[in-house]
Structures are given as C-alpha cells and as structure tokens.
Amino acid sequence: xxxxxxxxxxxxxxxxxxxxxxxxxxxxxxxxxxxxxxxxxxxxxxxxxxxxxxxxxxxxxxxxxxxxxxxxxxxxxxxxxxxxxxxxxxxxxxxxxxxxxxxxxxxxxxxxxxxxxxxxxxxxxxxxxxxxxxxxxxxxxxxxxxxxxxxxxxxxxxxxxxxxxxxxxxxxxxxxxxxxxxxxxxxxxxxxxxxxxxxxxxxxxxxxxxxxxxxxxxxxxxxxxxxxxxxxxxxxxxxxxxxxxxxxxxxxxxxxxxxxxxxxxxxxxxxxxxxxxxxxxxxxxxxxxxxxxxxxxxxxxxxxxxxxxxxxxxxxxxxxxxxxxxxxxxxxxxxxxxxxxxxxxxxxxxxxxxxxxxxxxxxxxxxxxxxxxxxxxxxxxxxxxxxxxxxxxxxxxxxxxxxxxxxxxxxxxxxxxxxxxxxxxxxxxxxxxxxxxxxxxxxxxxxxxxxxxxxxx
Length: 457
Ligand SMILES: Cc1cc2nc3c(=O)[nH]c(=O)nc-3n(C[C@H](O)[C@H](O)[C@H](O)COP(=O)(O)OP(=O)(O)OC[C@H]3O[C@@H](n4cnc5c(N)ncnc54)[C@H](O)[C@@H]3O)c2cc1C
Known about the structure:
Layout: H1 4-15, E1 39-40, E2 47-48, E3 52-54, H2 59-68, E4 73-76, E5 91-94, E6 101-105, E7 110-114, H3 123-128, H4 144-149, E8 166-172, E9 178-182, H5 187-194, E10 202-209, E11 215-224, H6 225-238, E12 241-247, E13 252-261, E14 266-267, H7 273-287, H8 291-303, E15 308-313, H9 314-317, E16 326-334, H10 338-352, E17 360-365, E18 380-388, H11 394-406, E19 410-411, H12 421-427, H13 431-441, H14 450-456
Parallel strand pairs: 3-5, 4-5
Antiparallel strand pairs: 1-2, 6-7, 7-10, 8-9, 8-10, 11-13, 11-15, 12-13, 12-17, 14-15, 16-18, 16-19, 17-18
Helix pairs in contact: 1-7, 1-8, 7-8, 10-11
C-alpha cells in the first residue's frame, strides 16, 4: 500500500530519476586518539579525554571530590549541549546517581528534586505525588542540573524558561562547601546559580514550583509560510504553548499548539518526525541543484498532510525523540524582531544554502530577571537552525549568526555561537555581578575549563 511517506519518496525519486545525486560531503568525526576515559556530547561536536570521570553517590562524596581536586572539575548532565561547556582534561562529574524526588509540599505544590534527575524520569513520580512540571523542552533526555545551567526552555509566551520554576537550591562551591539559597537567603548566590553554565558550583538539589497534574490537547496544522507569519503572533497569545517549524525549500511549515483540556486521552494518526527529517535529507540529496523543483515536490506533498490532534498527560506531550542527530544554533531575540529575522533567514538560506534540510524552529518565551538568562528583561522569541551532525555546520551558521546579532539576539548557552566575553557582557547588564559572585564561590577557578575561563576571567 502506498502510504504518505512512500508517496513523498516516490515523488522525489520520480522527479529526479536519472540526475546526479549532488551528495553533500560527509565529514568524519575525529576519533579519540587514546582509549582512556573519552567523553563526547550528543552530536559528537565536543570531545575530550578527561583525567577522571566520577559519579558520586552522596553529597558528602561530591564535596570531598571537589575539595580534594587540584585540576578543573566540570559537572555534566546528559551531554546534550553543543557548546564547549563540559570538555576538560581534568575531572568530569556526573550526578546521575543523585536523582529522583527528595521530598515535597502538597500545599505549595513544590518538590525538592536531585539535580541529576533526567526530565523524562520525573513525569511519573511527580504525577504520583499530585504535581507536574509547568513546562518542558522538546526532548526530555536532559538532566535537571544541565537544563538550569543553560536556561533550557520550552515554548509559551506566558511561560518562562525552566530556571524560573526554581524556588530554592543547594550547591557545592569551588572549595567543596555546601550552600542553601533562595530569593531571601543569599539572593545573589541564588540568582547567579539559576543560570550558571556550571561555572559557579555543582547544584545538588532544586526546589521546584510545580502545578497540579494536567492534560494537554496538542494540535499541529500544516500552513504556508505566509500564513504562518501572518498568524503567529495571535496564535502565540491565544495558546498556552505555541511554536512553529518552517521547512526550508518547501514554502510550508506547521504550527504546534497545546492547551489545557479535560478531554479523554487519545490521538489521531501521527507522522514520524524522524522519518520526516530523513525524507527531507533525501530531497536535499537528490534535488539540491533544483531548488524550484524541490519546493514544488515538498510543498505539494505537505499540502496533502492532515492536521494531528493528541490529548495526553502533560509530561508525555511535550517531548519527542530526536534520532537524527544534528548541530544547532539558537538565538533568543526580542519578540518584536522575531518574524522579521525569520524572513531574512529564510531568504539567505534558500538563496545560498541548498545543503540545509532541517526545519527551522521558532518558539516564544516569557521574560525573567535572572542575571545570565537570555530572557532577562524581555519578551522573547527563539529561532533555531540545524545542520546534520556529520556535515560542516560552520558555513551556514556563519551566514545566519549576523542576522541574529543584528536583532540583538542572545545565544542559547548550550547551542553553538561565536560570541566572546566582550560581546556577551554587552548583552547582559548583570554580567559583572555574576562574574563577581562566581569568583567569590570559586576563587581558584576550579569550575573553569578553557571556554569558561575565556568568558569569566
Ligand atoms: C536533541 C536536543 C534537543 C534539545 N531541545 C531543547 C529545547 O527544547 N529547549 C532548550 O532550551 N534546549 C534544548 N536543547 C539543549 C539542551 O536542553 C541544553 O543544552 C541542556 O543544557 C542539556 O542538558 P544536559 O543535561 O545534557 O546538560 P549538559 O549538556 O551535560 O551540560 C550543560 C551544562 O550544565 C552544567 N551542569 C550539568 N549538571 C549540573 C549541575 N548539577 N550543577 C551545575 N551545573 C551543571 C554543565 O557543566 C554544563 O555547563 C536540546 C538539545 C538537544 C541535543
């Protein structure tokens, strides 16, 4: 039987039947030269051979480890950041053995959670105690500590990044000392630790403000680029969670919204997102020299796609599996510039970068007052561009980054960018405040690898 996916493959193959593939060069990943203790991130763009990799089972063990260390110590979560935050030839410390819920307050709907917990492992246990995370990113593989460190966010114009859900935390500083802090008790340390790139200390426990368990109705609709641009602002204000994707060289994209519901759980037939990306790669491979044909084929196919509706428990509805690996650049722009920047990005991409096939993701995030949050003091929209993990991302990202910067973008701390300390400090009014708190809790620079040293010393 010819299903939708086969239909697209057939359309692509038939259109380019006898033409040359125009295949894109594949860059080999540098293999570690020594066998000892290699570490690499999810996309393979960051690698290192640390002296040691540790996973303490108690806070006391972690304190001893930091106090006794003479070299660099870098905390790691799930290794899903693209920037060189973790690599070191010193010690990498995972809090994977410190995970789960420590205790909770049913009246305030707060839960104290170990920071080594993976987001995907928190949904059910929180549900069991009558709580749920306020919002989540589009995957749930990350450790909570890793999410906070880079200001990881979901989408929703009235919803802040994950660090804004934190009401108190505990961390081990560069001397191995343990500190508790919140908005009243040591507020400067608290503010600095909420988004810190792991440069200030190792967070052990986090008190999260949650809400009662809820269901979400998720709807996706395929639309033309023009329709998306025309309606996005209104849809972002109308729905609790709203984002959209534009598919390069198709003229089409889809909007994705989520709202509270009491409807019964259920779902219409869903397209597999990973297969979809593989199909876009096939179209790129076979039609990169024929952009108009590529647009005709992809656009015609996408116009045949149905809307999808899913009703699920919140923690099952936010994340999806990303099996096709990539490298990513994401900038956070003042909301008023987002759509204008997107139009420029589309123009440049489709004129000069036929090699690109990943969708562009566009999300909304509420402002906050966290010193190193990219959402500090402004309503934000985020635009993310991607390159397949085996291909050189630099030429494309180099073309796009100036557009982000022109519109006062601040980079996602976990995603690729070329900004220096000088450039970043101009974007963050409290940069020096953060650097001072960092120095006082880590006077010997125990938590600084080369990249972080270039930012904070
Ligand atoms: C497929 C994919 C999808 C993604 N989707 C989203 C998304 O929807 N929204 C979004 O905003 N981002 C997204 N990201 C980026 C990702 O959420 C961030 O890079 C996040 O920081 C990764 O978490 P991690 O646990 O892997 O942390 P790592 O990458 O391992 O570490 C990130 C930082 O956290 C620090 N750290 C880790 N644990 C601690 C701790 N206990 N105390 C102090 N510091 C600590 C590390 O030192 C490092 O500086 C995505 C990334 C990928 C690969």
